[in-house]
């Protein structure tokens, strides 16, 4: 700022529920703080003199329009009510600004600081949300007045706040670490965007540096977006600058919300899955209604689009995405997978009703087929096959739907062994699950050796489709492992035909599957594909995904989903998490890394030296069931 040397610190503190911006300068400077955009509907400001300078308060507020989908005569019309009706949820934000030296002038939606030597800006926001089953507060002034009354209670000791923020963050972040030795051959620090746009000729350790950075950044995003007793991370995490966001900032349950949480167990972030557990508890009531009224089944059925109000009903549109009632059943896989890591009996008791009610639905929705019981009719999320040259999405059965039920019943039966004092109703359900599980259709292969996506050898409308739903048993399921080599080979052939490219999150899913097949070279190749730079202003589509300079996943619209889950393949290339009773440890020589280490507070500590030779293992098993090491 001119000839002045300016130092800035900024952080967003969960313990204090404040965003803080602190600036100091060795010479007087002018600073203008303004608020603009469609979020802003009204504002008010005040100014006062305090003992160490001047303090200003700026209160901004707004209100969302109300949704009236279902009342429109034509789907192409704007689905939002006129904002003047004021039917949406209100929100507000409060800025408290203190400066040293100089003056503050209050403008329209702005605070203008002149000749100041320093400032501290604190910000807190609040919405009218009262619960997924409650009507929200719609009055902007009610929210703004309540928020303004809290300002005097905010901490003013910024250094203590910063220390508290760092300690809070570190208690999650420091639980695991990956160190790729060649990424630290010198002490030169380069910006992430510069490394991303470099090539291996100029930066020979580009892949190692980026992989380590993305592993850390993915954990940073989840730590910052999914704290206990908040909302789960959605397609944008929690970060959205639009009042009409992409996909309405909802939860797409046919892959994306699950992908956000795949690493809570392996990265020892068990507290961060709590919002997903809470959302699934809240989904049981609407899920019961959907199962009963739409499909005539017991239990809970949740379709592919869930929102803040816990919508469980089908979305408008094509059956390729709308007719798929297994969103909660898939999320049960996340919830139980977390238990395999934390072995917390109280946690298992909490998720049991969710698993139980989804198992009831899954069993009720089964029909007899020539290959065994299977959900019928069924789709494979967002994919189609050809009939007389035309794309069709609904089949008699699909591998994805059947695989979800297989894994759900397996998890339910396994969970029942660890639960104490099951009542007779639950015990009867487990016996029913054991009987039904033995009758389910198993994974079938086509004449070319690939996993069949639907009940017959249909021609795929898009052979390189971004979704890998028919390989659910490979990941996140547990049915395709080294114990089933013929299925592993079929999954390999399926992946080869599907191809490596896709949108950003789809490439990450491919990475994980190749890691589960223990093909580190192929996983490394796809990691390199994912870590290709994409210009923030570039048009993106279903192929050509990569990473923006910010580190966020590039797809048709910016998402955090792929970045969040880029952690898992990075770790799997070093050490495969526990699955089907095995823990796999592999030296990184297979992917060309000459030195690396991994540390986890609840799993293992491993170190590799040059040429991939293992130097040290320290393994601590936290589960009661036996594990074999490979």
Can you characterise this structure?
The chain has 630 residues and is α+β, with helices and mostly antiparallel strands. The chain contains 16 helices and 23 strands. A hairpin with a 2-residue loop joins strand 6 (103-107) and strand 7. The longest helix has 22 residues, at 274-295. Residues 68-78 and 574-589 have low confidence and may be disordered.
Give a concise summary.
The chain is α+β, with helices and mostly antiparallel strands and 630 residues long.
The overall pLDDT, averaged over residues, is 87
SS-based class: alpha+beta
Task: Give the count of helical stretches.
Answer: 16
Outline: globular
Provide the low-confidence segments as ranges. 68-78, 574-589
**Would you count the extended β strands for me?**
23
Portion in strands: 15-25%
Q: Percent of residues in helical segments?
A: 25-40%
- Let me know the largest β-sheet: 7 strands, antiparallel
- How large is the radius of gyration? 26 Å
Itemize the secondary structure elements and their pairings.
Layout: E1 6-13, E2 18-34, E3 42-50, E4 53-63, E5 90-100, E6 103-107, E7 110-127, H1 140-149, H2 158-173, E8 176-180, H3 192-196, H4 206-225, E9 251-252, H5 256-260, H6 274-295, E10 305-306, H7 319-322, H8 327-342, H9 345-364, E11 366-369, E12 372-375, E13 385-387, E14 390-392, H10 399-418, H11 424-437, E15 459-460, H12 485-498, H13 504-516, H14 520-530, E16 546-547, E17 553-554, H15 561-565, H16 567-572, E18 575-579, E19 582-585, E20 596-600, E21 604-608, E22 614-619, E23 628-629
Parallel strand pairs: 19-23
Antiparallel strand pairs: 1-2, 2-7, 3-4, 4-5, 5-7, 6-7, 8-20, 9-10, 11-12, 13-14, 13-15, 16-17, 18-19, 20-21, 21-22
